[in-house]
Design goal:
The chain is mainly β. The protein contains one helix and twelve strands, in the order αββββββββββββ. It has a single domain (2-171), classed as Lipocalin. The chain has one helix at residues 2-21, and strands at residues 26-35, 41-52, 57-67, 70-82, 88-91, 94-95, 101-102, 112-118, 121-129, 135-145, 148-157, 160-171. Strands 1-2-3-4-5-8-9-10-11-12 form a ten-stranded antiparallel barrel. Strands 6-7 form a two-stranded antiparallel ribbon.
């Protein structure tokens, strides 16, 4: 009886994840003024696409920074799968020897990434461990608002704030 209940709950995890992410699914775009490492204020165009997958969801985001009329673009794509913790999702960025999606290894200089959903906010966290053992944490809060998503980004390292960006990305 207990084993059957546990198996049933395990099979329902993907359904719960799909229901939680459904409100966020869509394409969003916007821009913000961002201060660079050298103190210059530049325009950055941003977009995010959130899609449901069979057992979780995927977040793809792009940013284009404009300087002197030239744009430099970066794009990231990360899949997330449910964990045993309600509303907490593991990044599925690599495959282990058994073919299961697993997070990357921060001790190898790779980012450790996870996500959570709290109310109207989908948060993606990224943690990097530097060669000297220092760290950087990035937090992307994407909160549902009438226009689309409010993006609040913050990066800190070794206990010090490094960068913050806030803007509203409109639903496309």
């Amino acid at each position: 009886m207990v084993r059957g209940l546990l198996v049933s709950l395990f099979l329902l995890l993907p359904l719960a994840a799909t229901a939680q992410i459904a409100r966020f699914v869509g394409d969003y775009a916007g821009s913000a003024e961002v201060e660079t490492w050298d103190g210059e204020i530049v325009q950055r165009d941003m977009s995010v696409s959130i899609t449901g997958t069979g057992d979780g969801f995927e977040v793809k985001w792009s940013s284009t920074t404009w300087r002197d009329g030239k744009g430099k673009s970066k794009t990231y794509r990360i899949g997330f799968v449910p964990t045993d913790r309600d509303s907490v999702f593991a990044a599925a960025m690599a495959r282990n020897v058994f073919g299961h999606a697993v997070p990357l290894d921060p001790m190898k200089g790779e980012p450790y990434v996870w996500a959570r959903i709290e109310g109207d906010t989908l948060t993606v966290f990224s943690m990097y461990v530097g060669p000297n053992g220092g760290y950087e944490i990035q937090q992307f809060d994407r909160t549902l608002v009438p226009e689309g998503l409010r993006l609040d980004f913050a990066a800190s390292g070794d206990g010090k704030p490094r960068r913050e960006v806030s803007t509203v990305l409109k639903r496309q």
